[in-house]
Amino acid sequence: MSEKCLLDQWRDMAYDRNLPKDQLEKFWGTYFTIEREIYEQLLENPDEEVKGTVKELAEKYGQDVMTMVGFLDGINDSLKTANPIETMEEDTVVSLAFDKELLYKNMIDAKADWLYGLPQWDKIFDAETKKRLYREQKQSGTVRKAKKIGRNDPCPCGSGKKYKFCCGKNA
Fold first, then answer.
1. Do 68 and 75 meet the contact criterion of CB atoms below 8 Å apart?
2. Which Pfam family, giving just one, matches this sequence (predicted)?
3. How far apart are CA 55 and CA 65, in angstroms?
4. Which tens digit of pLDDT belongs to each residue from 118-165?
5. Can you tell me the distance from the alpha carbon of 98 to that of 82, in angstroms, rounded to the nearest whole number?
């Protein structure tokens, strides 16, 4: 049948459990450096839509196609319109038009301080905005439980009865 799609090939390579730990660390260290360099260029002109085939973008950023596929996989959730990464091939046209706030928050969520700490963000957001986005992203992962209603508390339905004699009767 057909060979694996580019994304599956990237994931097989990037998450190969048979590789020794030091080789995986070297692979990811190299990838994160490349990723940082691409983001530095993208953030210089954040409102410019970078568009082209996967192969053209790989050439534009001086990378091989597989590394570009990994980058596209990473940025896809932050794009204004998601790319068809599950089915893309070298000649698939993709866009890197990203939502600035969403990208910043996703970098925080990924704990990628080498990305959300890039100096290019200072030209996009002021310090107060960066703090607000950071706080919003951190709080979005915090689960808050509502205060539990006690048996003898007034019923929240407003009847004036105790919870145990009203809505809590059948609970």
1. no
2. SEC-C
3. 6
4. 999 999 999 999 999 999 998 887 777 888 888 899 998 999 999 999
5. 9
Domain borders along the chain are 6-140
DSSP 70-129: HHHHHHGGGBSS---TTT--TT-EEE--B-HHHHHHHHHHTT-HHHHT-TTHHHHS-HHH
Torsion of CA 160, 161, 163, 167, to 10 degrees: -90
Q: Which amino acid is at 147?
A: K
pTM as predicted:
0.78
List Cα–Cα distances, 18 to 22, 70, 85, 116, 132, in angstroms: 12, 19, 25, 31, 42
Both tokens of 36, joined, read 């940082």
Q: Tell me the residue type at 86.
A: E
CA distance 110 to 104: 10
Q: Residues 75, 96: contact at Cβ < 8 Å?
A: yes
3-state DSSP assignment of residue 38: helix
